[in-house]
Amino acid sequence: MVASLDRTIATPSFTRRMADRGVIGVLAILVAGLAGYLLMPNNLALLTQMIAVAMLVLSIDLVTGYCGVATLGHAALFGAGAYGAGIAAVHFGITDPVAMTAVGLLAGAAAGLVSGFVILRAHGLAQLVLSIAVIHLFHEAANKASGWTGGSDGLSAITPDAFFGAFEFDLWGVTAYAYGVILLAVVFLALQILVRSPFGMLARGVRQDQIRIAAMGASSHSVLLRMYVISGAVAGVGGALSAISTQVVGLDSLSFTLSAEALVMLVLGGTGSLYGAMIGTVVFMLFEDTLSAANPFHWLTIVGALLIAVVLFAPKGLYGSAAAFAGRVRRRPA
Amino acid sequence: MQTVLSIGVDALAYGMALFVISIGLSVTMGLMRVVNLAHGAFAMIGGYFASYAVRDLGLGYAAGILVAVVGTVVIAIPIERLLYRRIYGAPQLTQVLMTIGITFCVIGITNFAFGPTLKTVPLPPLLQGSVDLGFRSIAAHRIFVIICGFTVAAGLWFLVERTNFGVKVRATVDNAAMTAALGVRTEVVYAVSFAVAIALAAFGGVIGAELLPLEPYYALRYMVTFLVVVSVGGAGSIPGALIACLLLGTIDTTGRYLAPEYGEFFFYLAVILIVTLFPRGLAGRMK
After folding, report:
1. How large is the ipTM?
2. Does any CB of chain A come closer than 8 Å to the CB of residue B277?
3. SS in 3 state form for B12-27?
4. Chain B 201-240, CB below 8 Å of chain A: which residues?
5. Interchain contact, B96 vs A140, CB within 8 Å
6. For residue B287, what is the nearest residue in chain A, using CA coordinates?
């Protein structure tokens, strides 16, 4: 709280303000999106999946980085969005991509409400265990309700309509990719406004000192639960994007592994910053893709070693450490 | 009646295997406040050692257990010195990441060195048969696991409640700084407890190999189960862990017998209920 107060008083530089308002972020997303299209035109499916996972990581950042809730079960929200969009398309004939995204958003928010209600009842280790139990519960429920979800075969035959009747979701995945980039830019801008709003400040306060927040007259539980619902909506949009682009939803979207990997991506990039979440996702997924193609035996070992190295040498993550380094360099001449 | 009895025996054996492995985790978590997700990896290392010693080197079962325990502790000591030392007192998220990283490394290396296939620890003839109780026969191995479980529980209870070392352990669990101020070498208490915890994990990994099959993803698959046991029982409590293992073993085994198509649904539902009702565990004293 104190640090952020200082920042507003001491009229920040132009670039700083732009970064805070998310303009730089949106521009970076669009430029990176274009660069991805030009550099890896045959790998757009991977890039689209990366965008979907980036939304999951952003949504974990909201509860872990900003509110301090450690969770290993966040894929429940992502999977709920993916299955929501998929079920809407297969069973109810809602095949408009924007409508599917909206269904995913609502499903994710609902899952966020449910899992937030469960997880926020405990603290520390018990909270972690509850989050793990939630993701397994969702996974088993989806597996059992195979009439709706296709069970372990996955939910296939999702055929989204052409976007605005003009852009088909074809094999090349250009439409899905472009849609993903635009969605990510919109989500990023919305979240940047959210985390800088009074509500976002309150959430940071809850992470730093719950008792003081209570003494100020705010209910930390309600802040956390609302943040969980918002986070669910973001993850749900990511899940829906994944369902639209791959046209299939599998049980792996509701897995503990995805939850753990997404948390790893967040910490790799740096918690408590939207930029960190996105950088972590891109670095991790590119790394994983290159490495598992080059040597499928060792990639888990190397991911593990990377994780240990980050904890030991860059505890603030790539973005956090880089920002701290840049801050030191800037201050030195003065 | 037959079903109830089979469920009972299997649940007891499964619960005891869980207990032997996770009691070490419970003690270290109560002592050092480290969320150690790599505990299952050490149990797995123990199992692989025993499998290699018994199956490939042709040693006896008892010798295999000894090799497993000693080998795993030897591997664990440098890991504790170099990595765990850095995360004592660190935020929980950091501890989770570090220990997940260790787990990933162990899985990757095991997969590379021993391949992805299932490994077994061949049982000696004495444990292969079944014991006839007159109205029903029970696999001797199950009885062996149950006896081991109770022996470990009794031994630990004696160590913690009746010896000088146990007094130091309990004092350190309650207030480490105060205990150190009173002249107890808490780092020795930590080191010994960590070694005992790893040794028990390795032992449990070997004797439980029939119930929790050994393969490279063992460490990830059961990591959650062990963590759940500690959380349900309350970190640092031996009776709590014992009750939690028997309870969770019963729920899991009953679920598998009566409603296998639901998988672990009821297990995790029960976990959520118990943790919500007892956020500090059934017998927890961790604040």
Report:
1. 0.84
2. no
3. HHHHHHHHHHHHHHHH
4. 220, 224, 227-228, 230-232, 235
5. no
6. A124
**pLDDT value, residue A78:** 95
Cβ-contact A268, A278 below 8 angstroms: no
Encode pLDDT of B218-230 as tens digits: 888 888 888 888 8
In order, the DSSP letters of B237-268 are: -HHHHHHHHHHHHHHHHHHHHH-GGGTTHHHH
- The whole-angstrom separation of Cα B259 and Cα A257 is 25
CB A57 within 8 A of CB A278: yes
Kindly tell me the sign of the dihedral angle through the C-alpha atoms of A41, A47, A49, A52.
negative
Inter-chain residue contact A136 with B224, CB threshold 8 Å: yes
- In CATH terms, the fold of domain A2-254 is ABC transporter involved in vitamin B12 uptake, BtuC (1.10.3470)
Task: With beta carbons less than 8 A apart as the criterion, state whether B2 and B135 touch.
Answer: no
Say whether A301 and B275 touch across the interface (CB within 8 A): no
Inter-chain touch B112–A315, beta carbons under 8 Å: no
- Cα–Cα distance between A173 and A146 in angstroms, integer? 28
**3-state SS class at A250:** coil
pLDDT of residue B284: 60
Contacts of B121 (CB under 8 A, 6+ apart): B47, B50, B51, B54, B55, B61, B64, B206, B209, B214
Q: Using one digit for the tens of pLDDT, what is the confidence trace for A45-101?
A: 889 999 999 999 999 999 998 998 888 889 999 999 999 999 999 889 888 889 999
Map residue A108 onto helix, strand or coil. Answer: helix
What count of CB pairs under 8 Å joins A to B?
Answer: 136
Dihedral angle computed from the Cα positions of residues B50, B53, B144 and B222, in that order, rounded to the nearest 10 degrees: 20
How far is Cα B231 from Cα B280, in angstroms, rounded to an integer? 7
Q: Are B14 and B210 in contact (CB under 8 A)?
A: no
Do residue A297 and residue B94 have CB atoms under 8 angstroms apart? no
Q: What angle do CA B281, B286, B287 make, to 5 degrees?
A: 110
Which helix (H) or strand (E) segment holds residue B49: the answer is: helix B39-51
CB-based contact, B88 to chain A, within 8 Å: no
**Is a pLDDT exceeding 90 seen at residue B66?**
yes
A311–B97 C-beta distance less than 8 A: yes
pTM for this predicted structure: 0.86
> Best of A121, A129, A251 to disrupt the B interface by mutation (most B CBs within 10 Å)?
A129
Determine the Cα–Cα distance for residues A284 and A298; give it in Å rounded to an integer.
15
Phi, psi (rounded to 5 degrees) for A159: -120, 95
In chain B, beta strands by DSSP E: 130-132, 137-139
d(CA B51, CA A290): 34
Whether A220 and A206 have beta carbons less than 8 Å apart is answered as: yes
Does residue A2 carry a pLDDT above 70? no
pLDDT reported for residue B67: 93
Structure tokens belonging to residue A71:
């969770």
Distance (Å) of CA B46 to CA A136, A205, B62, B98? 27, 45, 13, 21
pLDDT band at B147 (very low <50, low <70, confident <90, very high): very high
Question: Which residue is closest to B235 within chain A, CA to CA?
Answer: A125
State residue A171's pLDDT score: 64
Domain extent listing, chain A = 2-254
**Chain B closest-CA separation from residue A318 CA (Å):** 15
Q: Which two tokens stand for residue B198?
A: 């790893």
Q: Which two tokens stand for residue B256?
A: 């598998």
